[in-house]
Design a protein that fits this description.
By secondary structure, the protein is α/β, with parallel strands linked by helices. The chain contains 20 helices and 9 strands. Among the domains are: 124 residues, Rossmann fold (3-Layer(aba) Sandwich); 141 residues, Nucleotide cyclase, GGDEF domain (Alpha-Beta Plaits); 57 residues, Arc Repressor Mutant, subunit A, CATH 1.10.10.60. Strand 7 and strand 8 form a beta hairpin. The longest helix is centred in the N-terminal third of the chain and has 41 residues.
Length: 528
């Protein structure tokens, strides 16, 4: 929910602004109102809105001074300044002090909508950048934690955060016995993809078991998991080993190394578990593992430089971004985003296997979103089929086709979910409006009730009903008003209050627009 504070010393104009915002197609809601800058400064500090819409000229403290003071403390809060024609040059100073936009009185609904859409776009971009920054930070943390496990150098500034993340967690080490079992036809180039698949299986099972923890590939064939306290390790470990064996045909064992008392003791605990793993799986066992178990290889991360970025941060970023588009109902923006991802991945070139990790990051990210957000039934057995088809890609054209199949499948699932969900969601919204029409009712409030983004709800509501939310609410209130005027002796002020309008004059204006006559004229016609 994105929130606005309104600052305006004319009560009627302020109330009109609030009504226009409530009826807009954006996701904004008014969280506070003030009639001067001094009062607004305290209110803004308390409720931390995303946006302030303020008049330029007010008593006690004007809008320009408010802008300067708030921006000095809360630089992320955006401002739209309202001005009269005579103050326009003065108001332009507000732009130099960080205001996003200016509105000139008298401003109508289209002006408000356009300004709010501009702020929406800015905040969406800011959120996307924040998600990207969080993903990159997660990568740095994973790289540093891997370095701790392997006694390699890492940035000292990350030590406190790593310490907080691991101390008190329970360390589990998973070891793959052999990537090339006799009953499978895996080859050396399959190893990075298989490791990535194992990471995703363990990550998905953490979700299924309602567990949380830090998971990463430490060395080739060896994974570390730091489970949060109170986790039931043994049933989870048994389930992980069984599932990986069932889906990928790989033999896996888990070693429970105990609770981590300090970050610097993590290498000792890991090396003890790794020694047990080497004893259980000697290097000469099985069909050969290319140095995966019982030693290290060029791509195992021992020198601190993985051949491929084997991690889940990329796919988690993709999943978070697609969820943002879905909850906002931005189908075209979602398609554009996925098309750009496909082009970006194809540019890696099929002559290296690096693009395959990126391709699987996209595929697994979309699968995760479809499972959690679109209620899609996930078929884990399809994982090996995806990897097999991926390996068959020999040209850029084949790679693009594989990626297009993944994105098209996801978009079809999204469209099906929309068709299935739309009618029932709007029916629930209509029932809610019918039950609460006499109360102050905003688009945001109704959208929140049915768990939809307000902008998406607005679009969906008009598509399903043929009317905007505001017009639907007005029509419903006018029908109820006509019943009261025809069948009761309530005066116009009482009727206005009963159907949800505090201002009788405003009610009378809407009533005449809807019926062609005033409330009193309507009563005379239908009570005579």
């Amino acid at each position: 929910m994105t929130r606005i504070v309104l600052v305006e010393d004319e009560p009627l104009f302020r109330k009109g602004l609030a009504k226009m915002i409530a009826g807009s197609s954006t996701s904004w809601t008014v969280c506070g109102e003030a009639d001067n800058g001094q009062e607004a400064e305290r209110l803004i500090a308390d409720c931390q809105p995303d946006l302030v819409i303020t008049d330029i000229r007010m008593p006690i403290m004007d809008g320009l001074e408010l802008l300067k003071r708030v921006k000095a403390r809360f630089s992320h809060i955006e401002f739209i300044v309202i001005t009269g024609y005579q103050d326009f040059q003065y108001a332009q100073t507000a732009l130099r002090h960080g205001a996003l936009d200016l509105l000139v009185k008298p401003c109508g609904k289209s002006d408000i909508d356009e300004a709010l859409l501009k702020v929406d776009a800015l905040l969406a971009d800011r959120q996307a950048q924040a998600r990207k920054a969080a993903s990159e930070h997660q990568l740095r943390l994973e790289s540093a934690l891997r370095s701790v496990f392997l006694r390699l150098p890492y940035s000292a500034e990350l030590f406190p955060e790593l310490e907080r993340a691991v101390v008190g967690g329970r360390l589990v080490v998973f070891q793959i016995a052999d990537f090339f079992p006799a009953h499978k036809q895996f080859q050396k180039q399959d190893v990075p993809l298989l490791q990535f698949a194992v990471l995703n299986i363990i990550g998905e099972m953490l979700d299924n078991h309602a567990l949380s923890g830090t998971l990463l590939l430490i060395e080739a064939g060896r994974f570390g998991l730091l489970l949060q306290p109170a986790a039931q390790e043994q049933p989870f470990c048994d389930a992980v080993c069984g599932t990986i064996g069932q889906l990928l045909g790989l033999s896996v064992r888990a070693w429970q190394a105990g609770v981590v008392p300090r970050l610097l003791q993590l290498p000792d605990m890991y090396e003890a578990a790794a020694a047990e793993a080497r004893a259980a799986y000697p290097a000469d066992r099985g069909s050969g593992n290319g140095g995966v178990v019982g030693g290290t290889s060029a791509s195992d991360g021992r020198d601190g430089r993985d051949a491929f970025p084997i991690n889940r941060a990329r796919q988690q970023l993709i999943s978070a971004q697609t969820v943002a588009f879905i909850t906002a109902g931005q189908s075209e923006a979602l398609r554009t985003y996925l098309d750009e991802l496909v082009r970006e991945i194809v540019r890696y070139g099929v002559e290296t296997d690096a693009w395959k990790i990126e391709a699987l990051s996209l595929s697994f990210g979309l699968l995760d979103t479809a499972r959690k957000q679109l209620e899609s039934v996930h078929d884990p057995k399809a994982m090996t089929e995806r990897i097999d088809k991926l390996h068959e890609c020999r040209t850029t054209e084949e790679a693009g086709h594989w990626l297009a199949e993944e994105t098209d499948s996801f978009l079809r699932a999204f469209q099906e979910w929309q068709r299935k969900y739309s009618a029932s969601a709007i029916n629930r919204a209509v029932r809610y409006i019918e039950e609460h029409f006499a109360e102050p009712l905003s688009l945001q409030q109704v959208a929140s009730h049915i768990h939809l983004n307000a902008a998406y709800f607005s679009h969906l509501f008009k598509k399903e009903t043929g009317r905007s939310f505001v017009q639907f609410l007005i029509d419903l209130r006018m029908e109820r008003a006509k019943q009261l005027l025809s069948n009761t002796d309530m005066n116009v002020t009482e009727v206005s209050g009963v159907v949800g309008y505090d201002l009788p004059n405003y009610f009378a204006k809407l009533f005449k627009q809807a019926t062609g006559c005033s409330p009193k004229e309507y009563r005379k016609l239908y009570q005579s």
